[in-house]
């Protein structure tokens, strides 16, 4: 399972860099539709192979399940949650430095921690409480650094957008355990239908906000990173869901998968996109990583 976590974290880190490249100078909503669609096509290729060669698919572990309408409803709920999270995250990433967005996004275990206490009645120990407050303190440090770049956290709507995206993402993470373990969905089945329903939701939104406006459509710039984002995300999610199939897996522990992406996004992203105050951001970055470590591993 450690290998699966490592693979997922690596793919998510590269995925974040590609996502920042894709949204520059582009509308966030059509970018999101295209990235989810490219990920869906990637998964659909395996779905088609499973239909044509079912025995080969079963022997190689990528068979797709037949599920009930009730299960479809549960997956659709996940699509609504993640569509909201991605819409907020893409908009925030377009308007904020990746070295600000990714660390805040990586504070997701903060919300998972709260969910574990409220929903699952878990009792955190002293180290976990320390990690909890260390994350809050580190985000405050980021707000002070952000002021030097003209980003006032309490007045910037995109900061609230990325916090909202992080909350919804953590909620989806808690929900994933129910889908994988309680409903016994395998990763590829969940990914296939989740992507399809998310595409439907995004098309409905774009029919109102983007498709009717020719000037918006003509301003759109296609980039190779759009396809890369979708494929990398689905690859990372596959390894994450495979790890979550372990009946002893804890969602608080597995959320560490997505936290390892922070190093790639902040260090490499700061260099590639030439963002300011890279060294100063390493201090609160370390604080968030330490807080996450204490919450997840103590």
Describe the structure concisely for a colleague.
The chain has 298 residues and is mostly helical.
What global shape is seen?
globular
Percent of sequence in beta strands? under 5%
The largest sheet, given as strand count, sense and whether it forms a barrel, is: none
Low-confidence stretches: 1-9
How does the helix and strand content classify structurally?
mainly alpha
Mean pLDDT: 77
Oligomerization state: single chain
**Total number of beta strands:** 0
H and E order? HHHHHHHHHHHHHHH
**CA-based gyration radius:** 19 Å
Termini separation comes to 18 Å
User: Helix coverage percent of residues?
Assistant: over 70%
Number of helices: 15
Number of domains: 1
If you had to describe this structure to a student in words, what would you say it looks like?
The protein has 298 residues and is mostly helical. The chain is built from 15 helices and no strands. The model is unreliable at 1-9 (pLDDT under 50).
